[in-house]
Design a protein that fits this description.
Layout: H1 8-18, E1 22-23, H2 30-42, H3 48-66, H4 75-83, H5 98-111, H6 118-128, H7 132-142, H8 155-170, E2 194-199, E3 209-213, E4 219-221, E5 237-240, H9 254-258, E6 259-264, E7 269-275, H10 284-290, H11 292-300, E8 304-305
Parallel strand pairs: 2-7, 7-8
Antiparallel strand pairs: 1-4, 2-3, 3-4, 5-6, 6-7
Helix pairs in contact: 2-3, 2-10, 3-5, 3-8, 5-6, 5-8, 7-8
Bound molecules: zinc ion (ZN) (2 copies).
């Protein structure tokens, strides 16, 4: 038997290979678990009514995804994307018309919610009745593929429907066939920035950090203690959470154990990071939205969000012209 000694570079390459690089969403559980998480977070939250509304949206997304016809990148789209190291189902990817049905269903679910404020119910009805043309125009603007003003009130519901469309595809792909991009801060499938990170607790992903796509829910690996925006690492990266105001330095509440902000001194930005080992129910989308108090604190300290939340439209300063 022959044996050989691995050089340090080879050892690192082997270690990298053993990490699952991509984790794709499970269409049967993604939105159902998110709805449960929103409901659970609503119980003790000062923004409980808002989180219950988001739970209703996630339940409607779950139902819409179950009926959603399959749309996948064609073999030609995939090989062209691979050749140019581009995402195979980018924002400009032609949408299946069924996305508009998902939007209607989400709008109707919001309008039918018990104890729903009248303006929110009207918004749900309005979105449910948007023409195909208007819905497509708004979706293109939201995804940045067409110029023009975004309908800020409708944007979260439009984004929820677009998530259904893109997740219907990402959940049918094979993780090993997804090629990571050269830009670690963008989704390898759709090219959108991540909403937040999650450190997973179950094998084979245990202990690894993944960035969670705001659009297609694909997760891709990034080493820990590294800025997902500019790539800085080491002492430039810090972790911040809300602490109790009793002087103990302990987390302010249960949510603050499992949710922190990864801040970067190089680019003065942050993204949240959620830890499954602290709470197995964490969800990057739900926990990010429920921890708005942490965003307010970080803004006071001069840090900017690296990218917005898909279900909370924040107008860029340019939009206010
Ligand atoms: Zn994506
Ligand atoms: Zn940075």
């Amino acid at each position: 038997m022959t044996s050989r000694i691995l050089e340090p570079g080879q050892i690192e390459t082997l270690a990298q290979r053993s990490i699952p690089r991509i984790r794709l969403p499970d269409r049967d559980t993604l939105f159902a678990r998110r709805a449960e998480r929103f409901e659970a977070l609503a119980v003790a939250s000062p923004i409980g009514a808002y989180l219950r509304l988001q739970a209703a949206v996630a339940r409607a997304q779950h139902a819409a995804l179950a009926d959603f016809p399959g749309t996948l990148p064609t073999p030609a789209q995939r090989s062209a994307a691979q050749a140019h190291r581009m995402p195979p189902m980018p924002a400009a990817w032609p949408r299946a018309p069924a996305w508009r049905d998902a939007l209607s269903a989400i709008g109707r679910a919001v309008a039918a919610l018990a104890d729903c404020p009248v303006e929110v119910a009207r918004l749900g009805e309005r979105v449910a009745l948007l023409s195909m043309e208007d819905a497509d125009t708004q979706a293109d603007r939201l995804l940045g593929v067409r110029e023009g003003a975004v309908d800020t009130a409708a944007a979260p519901l439009l984004m929820a429907a677009l998530q259904v469309h893109w997740t219907a595809a990402s959940s049918r792909l094979v993780a090993d066939e997804v090629q990571p991009l050269d830009v670690p801060g963008l989704c390898p499938l759709c090219g959108m920035p991540p909403v937040a990170s999650i450190v997973r607790a179950q094998a084979p992903y245990r202990g690894y950090r993944y960035l969670h796509c705001a659009l297609c829910a694909c997760e891709w690996h990034l080493v820990r203690v590294q800025c997902s925006q500019c790539g800085a690492s080491g002492k430039d990266v810090a972790y911040r959470s809300l602490v109790a105001d009793d002087g103990t330095g302990e987390p302010a509440g249960a949510l603050d154990q499992a949710v922190r902000a990864e801040t970067c001194e190089q680019c003065s930005s942050y993204r949240k990071i959620v830890y499954q080992e602290k709470d197995p129910g964490v969800d990057p989308v739900a926990d990010d939205l429920a921890s708005l108090a942490l965003d307010l604190l970080l803004a006071e300290h001069g840090y900017a969000r690296a990218s917005g939340h898909p279900l909370l439209w924040q107008a860029e300063p340019d939009d206010a012209r």
